[in-house]
Amino acid sequence: MKECQGVEGSDDERLKKICGLSEKRSSHNMWRPIILFGVIILLFVVSRSLNFEGKILEMRDWIHSLGILGPFLFTVVYITATITAVPGTIMTIAAGSVFGSLVS
After folding, report:
1. Which residues contact 4 (CB under 8 A, 6 or more apart)?
2. Distance CA 92, CA 104 (A)
3. Which DSSP string do the residues of 51-75 spell out, in sequence order?
4. Stretch 95-103: mean pLDDT, rounded?
5. What is the arithmetic mean of pLDDT over 4-22?
6. Cα–Cα distance between 91 and 82 in angstroms, integer?
7. Is the Cβ–Cβ distance between 63 and 95 less than 8 Å?
8. Are 79 and 71 spatial neighbours (Cβ–Cβ below 8 Å)?
9. What is the 3-state secondary structure (H, E, C) of 6-42?
10. Average model confidence (pLDDT) for the chain?
11. Which of 2, 59, 60, 64 could disulfide-link to 94, CB 3.0 to 4.6 Å?
12. Mean pLDDT of the region 48-74
């Protein structure tokens, strides 16, 4: 950006803000990765304490016992899990263990 060259030494706060050189903005951005890391750790601890893995395995056994309706019900559960942000890897592994592979 041509208009941002030489702005670092300028006293014009408006121009610094436009060019992204505001001190307030950079200190605010410093906390974002820390907060994100904290949220990830919190989600991990909550998922372990609520035993999501065991509940998904129970669901897998239940859907397998439904026979022909199992794939349809699993599709509904998978869509619901996606909307509620349950990790897709767990659901995909459950689908593979219940329904097997198309490739023999």
Report:
1. 15, 18, 19, 21
2. 18
3. THHHHHHHHHHHHHHTGGGHHHHHH
4. 71
5. 57
6. 9
7. no
8. no
9. CCCCCCCHHHHHHCCCCHHHHHHHHHHHHHHHHHHHH
10. 75
11. 60
12. 82
| Structure tokens, 48 | 């372990």
Angstrom CA distances, 28 to 11, 22, 24, 78, 102, stand at 21, 10, 6, 37, 50
**Are the beta carbons of 43 and 67 closer than 8 angstroms?**
no
Q: Which residue has the higher pLDDT, 10 or 36?
A: 36
Query: Average pLDDT, stretch 83-91?
Result: 80
- Determine the length of the chain: 104
Q: Which amino acid is at 9?
A: G
